[in-house]
Specification:
The protein is an alpha/beta fold. It contains eleven helices and eight strands.
């Protein structure tokens, strides 16, 4: 695994294959290893870059040199990119999807295509005016965020992570998790609080997404929590060249639980928008 120094923090990432660049951004409490199967699928014809975002995998925690924002995480993603002026394909899931949206807003001229898998762009629910449904869904998210914030203040990391895991994966998911993984996840709770802060306080208005004109696939699970299903619709409606696709029977962690269907959809989208004739074989 390669590393760089970014403002005093060690940032780790993997880079495999050659060809057009595909940048993969993982979910909260995960790491770049989340994308191992997709990276292997694409590496025969693409350069695949998968960083560990701040506080996850082998990357250091946020160094604390200012309030944490999605822009800071997008800067990390930009920093691990290989040198050169070629356009890139960007894929993000959950928190990584929110980072990908921020990256695309900051650097729209850098993109060739975009895939957003249930991006947790919670600020869209916050900013959707007087719609009572969106206010209710935003309140649902805020309850989880407040619980996590209290846990960081009191040290009750395991309880907060248990609620978080059950919310996104269904009641009882935490109890089915192996003890060693529970312990590892609990240690990530402080970064989880920062992720909530960054996604809730993001200031990019929905209208700004009209500038992201590249071909975009927005994926969501048919059984996902209502906030992210709604956000996926809002994002697909906001981006001028976006298409919304639902994976039946899947929930929020669909890149892991429905890996074959998700990877096939992502690969098909990417391959359909590559300029390079040397392409990886479709799944």
């Amino acid at each position: 695994m390669a590393t760089i120094d970014l403002n005093g923090a060690r940032v780790a990432y993997t880079e495999t294959g050659s060809g057009e660049t595909v940048l993969l951004l993982h979910a909260t409490a995960s790491s770049g290893a989340q994308w191992r199967a997709l990276a292997q699928m694409l590496a025969s014809g693409c350069r695949v870059v998968a960083p560990d975002l701040y506080g996850y995998g082998e990357s250091d925690s946020w160094p604390g040199n200012g309030p944490f924002t999605l822009a800071a995480e997008a800067a990390l993603a930009d920093a691990v990119m290989p040198t050169g002026n070629g356009l890139i394909h960007l894929v993000g899931h959950s928190y990584g999807g929110a980072v990908a949206l921020r990256f695309a807003t900051q650097y729209p001229e850098r993109l060739r295509s975009l895939v957003l898998i249930e991006p947790v762009a919670f600020h869209l629910l916050r900013d959707e005016g007087p719609d009572p449904t969106n206010r209710q869904l935003f309140g649902e998210v805020m309850e989880i965020a407040a619980l996590v914030s209290r846990a960081v203040s009191t040290g009750d990391y395991r309880s907060a992570m248990a609620h978080f895991v059950d919310y996104w994966n269904g009641e009882g998911a935490w109890m089915r998790t192996k003890p060693e993984l529970q312990a590892s996840l609990a240690r990530r709770t402080p970064k989880l609080a920062l992720d909530f802060w960054a996604t809730i306080m993001e200031s990019t208005p929905r209208l700004a997404y009209r500038r992201i004109a590249v071909p975009t696939l927005v994926l969501r699970g048919g059984r996902s929590p209502r906030p992210t299903r709604c956000i996926a619709e809002l994002v697909a409606e906001s981006l001028p060249a976006a298409r919304l696709q639902t994976i039946d029977g899947a929930s929020h962690m669909l890149p892991l639980t429905h890996k074959e269907a998700v990877n096939a959809a992502v690969a098909k989208h990417l391959l359909g928008h590559m300029a390079d004739r040397h392409r990886p074989a479709a799944a």
